[in-house]
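Workshop exercise sheet. Pairs work together: one partner reads the sequence aloud, the other fills in the structure field after running the prediction. Swap roles for the next sheet.
Pair: D.N. / O.F.
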Amino acid sequence: MLKLSRGRRVLGRMRVFSRPALTAAVLLTVVAGAWWFTSSGRAAGLPDPSSLVPVEKGPLVVSVVATGRIEPITTVEIKSKANGIIERLHVDVDDVVEAGQVLAELDRENLQARLREARAALQAAEAARDGALAQVAKAEIEAESPEVELARRNHERAQQLGARRLISASTLDETRTALEEAELRRRAAEGQLAIARARVVEAEANVAQARAAVERAAEELASATIRAPIRATVLTRDVEVGSPVSSILNMGANATLVMTLGDIEQVYVKGRVDESDIGRVAIGQPTRITTEAFPDRVFDGRVTRISPIGVEADNVTTFAVEVSIDNPDKALKANMTANAEIILETLPESLLVPESAIVYDAERRTFVDVYDPAAPDGRRRVPITTGVGNGSRRQVLEGLSEGDRIVLPR
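Structure field:
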């Protein structure tokens, strides 16, 4: 009896430990089967699920990207018409100024002295002119003197009397000499009159020159106040108080740059488009502008200018294209790098496949590999007819249906 009961206890323990072992064996069998199935499937060349992409229907935007820098529509370099020293600066970088607003002022002391000198020179020239006019009046009186006519009548009367022997020959000679002397004095007076008139012309020219000098000095004094020609934003300020400034009238393009103004509420991107795409770019086309400074923001723009001549570099011809952008909040800054995506065409609903899924044969016919579990390698090559593309996806016109799964090339 004792042996029998002990034997039952042993059997009971054996049953308890056999259930976990059986469960582990089943799990091991399932895992091994799954591994065998997966391995055998891969060995047979079935596509990896990660390489399967469904054919989708959706909008397709065909575009071309022109990369360039943000530039203001209007940029003005402010230079002074007068030489001098900066005495006051009324604006700073990023200030918005109105047309006619005072930007800077030069030291006026030297300019005021020049104006006084010019006015004094004008007064002297006017006095010289008045003196020349007085000389002309005097010479005119002398030239118009009746002395010659009187001397001529006396001589004619003496000739008549001498013919009748009523006067002596010496008296006749005296009247002749008096006439000749009167004529000499008249000719001398006429010569002086001509000289006086020439001096008046010269004096008038000196007056005009002196008056121009006064006007120029007055203009330089007025130019000591530098004003904004347009409503714009101060982009750069290139001088400080005490800086010397050279006049643009004297130095031309080499004159001192005081500051640069630009209207950045209207900006543009000037990029380049390949000649293969330029034929589809037109004035007024919408654009989407992105920048590194605002990676999550898209700015709207439009094509406003297309260069009529291309530029060749490295055997590639490109054309300059300008895209204008509204920038009312002035978020876009001058010289920012920007990508202008020019929208060439928008297709509302199309069958789309990735460009990388399309295979070309020697005759440039297009194919894709469609997933087919019944095929030995899980794929079936299908010819397709394609339409336009945007570089990442392409329109499919024939050969596929929505929902088909295609295999991306390895």
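Discussion prompt: Confidence is low (pLDDT under 50) at residues 1-18, 34-43. What would you look at next?
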